[in-house]
Amino acid sequence: MSQIFLLRNAPAGALILLALAVVDVRFAGMVLLGAAVESLTVYYLDTDLRQEIRDGLRGYNGALIGAAWAIFIGYTGLSVTLTVLCALATIVVYGILQRMFASTRLADALLPVATGPFCIVIGGTWTALDSVVVTPPAPSGPTVELGLLTDFLSTFADVVLASGALSGLLIIVALFVADWRAGAFGVYGAALAMAVGGALGLSWSPLSGSLHGYSAVLVAIALGATFWNNRSLLTRFLGVSLAVVLTLAVEPLLILLPGPTLTWPFLISLWAVMLLGRGVDKRRELHVPAKIVTYEPA
């Protein structure tokens, strides 16, 4: 559960699962089903990947698959069947993306697969079943109206395709439990997205039209607390800020395409900023004078 937010922490995962159960126990069950199908299948297919499974890296795409079909179709036999089949498909897509990123010119940028399998599988299946898929109202946990604060908290629930201030608050707590940097950068990403979105006049209505904050939360955590830990705090702050703005810029373009937007804004902005960072590193390496090694006579 915690790897949905690019973290490895079991207590945080338990809190996230609780946040989903607050929305609807059936919703949490669908998420668990997707995660179990993906992780258990990989566990029995490839013993070399068992450490990745323990780290939660082979289950979070399946978890999001379960959340998506619960949202798109509801709690039906069809949604359960699609969750199982699509969770299995993410295993194949994960392997393809992993090999592609490792064997091309992109290899030295160390691009993560992240939620790519989830987006590709759900997007393809949605397009194929366009006449069948009917999106019911998004599940929403108990909440009180606190104006912008409600919208802010709900942004964190949006990451797992749910909504509700209480669920969002539990997820924020989970982030700080896992890593204070993840919590801090996640809060910063959501706040910056709301500020920039408000300045641009974007409507802010979680899961009832355009979503402007959940990809910002993910990319802020990804760069601020997960993939750029070897970089300075200033570099991470600047990278997160750029990536958050990119999510807002990319989103309107993706809405024009068929199928749901999902976490594509997060993926595109994350990969773009990581490639940019690697490009900057290469330019610096070219300008670093080579050390001349001299040998003293014996």
From TrEMBL:
A Pfam family it matches: UT
Compartments, as annotated in UniProt: Cell membrane
Principal place of residence: membrane
Keyword Transport: no
Keywords, in A-Z order: Cell membrane, Membrane, Transmembrane, Transmembrane helix
Keyword Transmembrane helix (UniProt): yes
Bilayer topology term: Multi-pass membrane protein
Segments crossing the lipid bilayer: 12-37, 67-97, 109-129, 159-178, 185-205, 211-230, 237-256, 262-280
Protein family (similarity comment): Belongs to the urea transporter family.
Protein name per the record: Urea transporter
Annotated organism of origin: Corynebacterium guangdongense
